[in-house]
Design brief:
With 415 residues, chain A is an alpha+beta fold. Chain A has twelve helices and eight strands. In chain A, the strands form two sheets. In chain A, strands 1-4-5-8 form a four-stranded mixed β-sheet. In chain A, strands 2-3-7-6 form a four-stranded antiparallel β-sheet, with no helix packed on it. Chain B has three domains: 112 residues, Butyryl-Coa Dehydrogenase, subunit A, domain 1, CATH 1.10.540; 98 residues, Butyryl-CoA Dehydrogenase, subunit A, domain 2, CATH 2.40.110.10; 147 residues, Butyryl-CoA Dehydrogenase, subunit A, domain 3 (Up-down Bundle), CATH 1.20.140.10. Helix content of chain B is 49%, strand content 16%. The chains are: A alpha+beta (415), B alpha+beta (376).
């Protein structure tokens, strides 16, 4: 499609508004809060909603047309997202399916992978996840131990992954594995597309302090993969992972063009903003409470303004790509402050629920328990600070004892 | 800073920068004697000739902006002035102009005053605070009593910026009908202006006593129906200027501190190589970006006259003023002892930021306003 044929943002917006009103179900504001840890039905629902979007011609707005998208601009996506306020949307598919995994396949995948996987996700037929982190270490991703070895034309995968978000609901995962142990760590990795139902793949759900079971751990025992499962080049998986991490920071920070509808999972995690807690606890008239709610309003607003500015700056090249770490770090700070403010506002009521239910104040309490989640997920805040100081401010890099050393000679424990 | 500037805006910025380099130095500011004026009318006049009091004034009233979007030009200018803690009545004159222009056409005509302020010929300032009060413009204790054809003003204002230098005061007062604003010449009988100690060396403050000051009906700005809206406009412009000048100052001090991090060595390595310090630089860099993001968003909303402009200026003020303290105090800490000496530039910026934080609503005041606006 040439520029001349592209529908204007305003016309697209108007069409979206009418279509949403006719087609998409309205969010029920009075619906009971979802129970964390039991969301299988939400995933079924997300696929249905995605199919509806696809049928209506509003799916994959920023993905290229040849892979099933609409090939439209960020401005079109923004307009659409604004119009979706108040409607039910398949927001579970935003992260990681569209904004991280599909975005990475688009950058680094083979033509066949792009054509099959991206379009299947846009149609609502497939959901993606990431098999990156391992129990041996989170921040030092390139030091991973899962191995893939060639047996004829078949790769044999063995090892263990963890922290894979909603992998239980996914069909495919991007899996980073070591394929050469005789070279320094970044140069011996390969990225694979792995079906989550592959024989030899065993998955458990991990229960978190807030009751959520969205994270999974996986055990790979002689999982067989064809050569066509490789994403990017063999032993150049770090290049793929780097794009993936960029997309992850961008998505978590709120700067991805592939997020449609409000990012994240506001319903599942909602219900405990300082504003709602102030209302629920009857403390809205207290000046101290009003100050804290105002602070929360300001922080949420600044967070969105920051996303708009930094993504635009990265888009135009005013900021280099590691600038996405600014969003990542600020997001964590804002999220933490928000849980702190909600706790302050709940005051004495945070320790007990309403009858046998946790209630809104209780939920603020539970949310406080996982306060650090925002500064751990998607690379820790400490890693984001390293990125910002080293990549944006050009400060000296941290010392590492594994640089330029074959991975099989790197020390991996005390002994 | 806006991400992209037009050629005209760059020229406007460059002209301001070059005048500031000629007319102003931090060293002069540092060496001011008690009672010595921080700026003179000639230098303000030269600024006005470059359009410093014209951006938000329509062309037919003697103003004009280079980009056609006056509020954005004003913000750009405020950043430049803030980056060198420039003295001068930039904030008060533009705030009064904001009020007069907003009220234009609704009450007595002030075209002549608008033109004289825009050209730099006259200087005006907003007399809104009263002794001992926090930010509460709606609760003025200064009274305006009708006297046949005019008004009589009584009471005391303080924290009046450039009050001793100004020709005109925009006095917010309570009338039997509610709040109203009046343009009062400082030379009027019954007006007594006395200097007030100010934390910011570059911004003289004054206390103004109004003792049976009589003004005619033409002194009124706007009408009872427009006063609230005009006050809001003055506040929005004041907050934008504050946030933008803080951003300009933060850019400068952060850059200085980063440079220090590279140049200063301890234990044989630069400060910038210590992770404990790198992480603090990363936090500051992030906050700085957020300060710019919210200031620009507020400027765009005020420029467009969006319904959320009131909210966005309070978001910006509450955020920028607080983070400015965090950043500047950390810059002091990273500099070590030299950062708390009179000879270092940091305190000049810290004075400005602390003063800006305090005036026209503290972050706490604006957070409560945000709660009001969010219908809590």
């Amino acid at each position: 499609m040439t520029t001349a044929e592209t529908e204007s943002v305003e016309s697209f917006r108007a069409r979206a508004r009418a279509w949403l009103a006719d087609t998409m179900p309205r969010l029920d504001e009075n619906a009971p809060l979802p129970v964390l840890g039991d969301d299988d039905h939400e995933w079924v629902r997300a696929r249905e909603l995605q199919k509806t979007l696809y049928a209506g011609g509003f799916a994959g707005i920023c993905f290229p047309r040849e892979y099933g998208g609409l090939g439209l601009s960020r401005a079109h996506q923004r307009a659409f997202t604004e119009e979706t306020a108040g409607y039910e949307m398949p927001v579970q598919l935003n992260i990681p399916t569209f904004s991280i995994v599909a975005a990475t396949i688009l950058d680094m995948g083979t033509e066949e992978q792009k054509r099959e996987r991206i379009s299947a996700a846009i149609r609502g037929d497939e959901v993606f996840c990431q098999f990156l982190s391992e129990p041996s270490g989170g921040s030092d991703l390139a030091g991973l131990l899962t191995r893939a070895e060639l047996d004829g034309d078949t790769w044999i995968l063995n090892g263990q992954k963890t922290w894979s978000t909603s992998a239980y609901a996914a069909d495919w995962g991007l899996c980073l594995a070591r394929t050469n142990w005789d070279v320094p760590k970044h140069r011996g990795l390969t990225m694979f597309l792995v079906p989550t139902v592959a024989p030899g793949l065993h998955m458990n759900r991990v229960k978190m302090v807030n009751g959520s079971r969205e994270f999974c751990e996986e055990f790979f025992t002689d999982v067989q993969l064809p050569a066509s499962a490789v994403v990017g080049e063999v032993n150049d998986g770090w290049a793929v992972a780097s794009r993936q991490l960029f997309h992850e920071r961008n998505a978590v920070g709120g700067g991805s063009p592939f997020v449609s509808g409000l990012a994240g999972r506001p319903r599942a995690l909602g219900g405990q903003s300082p504003f709602t807690v102030a209302k629920a606890t009857g403390r809205a008239a207290e000046p101290g409470v009003r100050e804290r709610v105002g602070e929360w309003v300001a922080l949420e607003t600044v967070k969105n303004q920051m996303v708009a500015r930094v993504s635009r700056a990265i888009g135009t090249g005013t900021l280099p790509a590691p600038g996405a770490a600014l969003l990542r770090l600020f997001h964590a700070e804002a999220a933490q402050r928000s849980t702190d403010l909600a706790m302050d506002v709940a005051g004495a009521q945070i320790a007990a629920g309403v009858g046998t239910e946790e209630g809104i104040a209780g939920r603020a309490g539970v949310s406080y328990l996982s306060r650090q989640g925002a500064s751990l997920g998607g690379g820790s805040s400490e890693m984001a600070r390293n990125q910002i100081s080293e990549r944006l401010l050009s400060m000296p890099r941290e010392q590492s004892n594994d640089r330029d050393i074959p991975f099989n000679q790197v020390k991996r424990g005390r002994s | 800073m806006e991400l992209e500037l037009t050629a005209d805006q760059k020229l406007f910025q460059a002209s301001a920068r070059s005048l500031l380099e000629k007319d102003h130095s931090l060293d002069r500011l540092r060496r001011l004697e008690v009672g010595e004026p921080a700026w003179d009318r000639d230098s303000w006049q030269r600024g006005a000739e470059l359009g410093w009091a014209a951006t938000i004034v329509p062309e037919e009233l003697g103003g004009g902006s280079v980009s056609g979007e006056g509020v954005r030009d004003l913000t750009l200018l405020a950043e430049e002035l803030g980056s060198v803690v420039a003295p001068g009545p930039f904030l008060p004159v533009n705030v009064v102009l904001a009020g007069l222009v907003a009220a234009h056409g609704t009450g007595p005509d002030h075209t002549g005053t608008i033109e004289a302020l825009a050209s730099g010929e006259q200087i005006a300032t907003w007399a809104v605070y009263e002794p001992g009060d926090q930010w509460s413009p709606d609760a003025a204790r200064v009274t305006a009593t009708p006297t046949g054809g005019g008004w009589r003003l009584d009471g005391t204002k303080d924290r009046v910026e450039s009050g001793s230098e100004a020709d005109l005061l925009l006095v917010t007062a309570t009338t039997p009908e509610g709040l109203a604003q009046f343009l009062v010449p400082t030379a009027a009988e019954g007006v007594a202006v006395s200097p007030q100690w100010a934390l910011d060396l570059s911004r003289p403050l004054a206390e103004v006593r109004l003792d049976s000051v009589v003004v005619d009906a033409g002194a009124v700005v706007g009408t009872p129906a427009t006063t609230a809206e005009v006050l809001e406009r003055q506040l929005q412009i004041a907050l934008l200027i504050q946030c933008a000048e803080i951003c300009g100052g933060l850019d400068k001090m952060f850059a200085l501190t980063v440079q220090w991090g590279f140049d200063r060595y301890s234990f044989g390595r630069p400060l910038a190589s210590y992770q404990a310090l790198k992480h603090r630089f990363a936090d500051m860099r992030t906050w700085l970006e957020a300060c710019h993001a919210t200031t620009q968003a507020a400027a765009e909303a005020v420029q467009a006259g969006s319904p959320d402009a009131a909210e966005l200026v309070s978001v910006a003020k509450s955020f920028v003023a607080e983070r400015a303290q965090w950043i500047l105090q950390d810059c002091v800490q990273l500099h070590g002892g030299i950062g708390v000496t009179w000879e270092h530039d940091l305190h000049l910026y810290l004075r400005r930021a602390t003063s800006d934080r305090a005036l026209y609503g503290t972050p706490e005041d604006h957070r409560r306003r945000l709660a009001d606006l969010s219908s809590l």
